[in-house]
Specification:
The chain is mostly helical. 59% of the residues lie in helices and 0% in strands. Helix 1 (5-12) crosses helix 2 (16-24) and helix 4 packs antiparallel against helix 5.
Amino acid sequence: MTHRVKDTATRVGLPSRTLRYYDRIGLVSPPRTASGYRAYGPEEEGRLRFVRQAKTLGFSLEEIRDLLAVAERGCCSEVVPEVQRLLDDKIATIDAQVAQFGAFREHLVAFRAGGGGGCGHNGHGAFCGCLDDAAPGSPS
């Protein structure tokens, strides 16, 4: 059984506009009925759920496109290594971001412990400089 955009959007938890966008960019392109309506079946709904979950996990649409392209090959011996490579790349990116967040957190904790600024402008000037030293790499 197939569904139109509005029903499919409700079923997969995405806005109708998003489904139309994914179709326009070729990410999930359902077949059309004779009268031109998009007809989403179970396969397209599964892809949309995958895209929604991958977006929630921080994958970009380009990364999701790569994953879907690999999966469409259908041969597990080819798909699994490619998916693992893409996942390894994503894990490395996340690890780097976690390290950056940790370093920034430490910097902010030290900044806060040091009084959190106190630029001495006392409300005068075009911009309060209290946060000037909050950015990592700022001269102290």
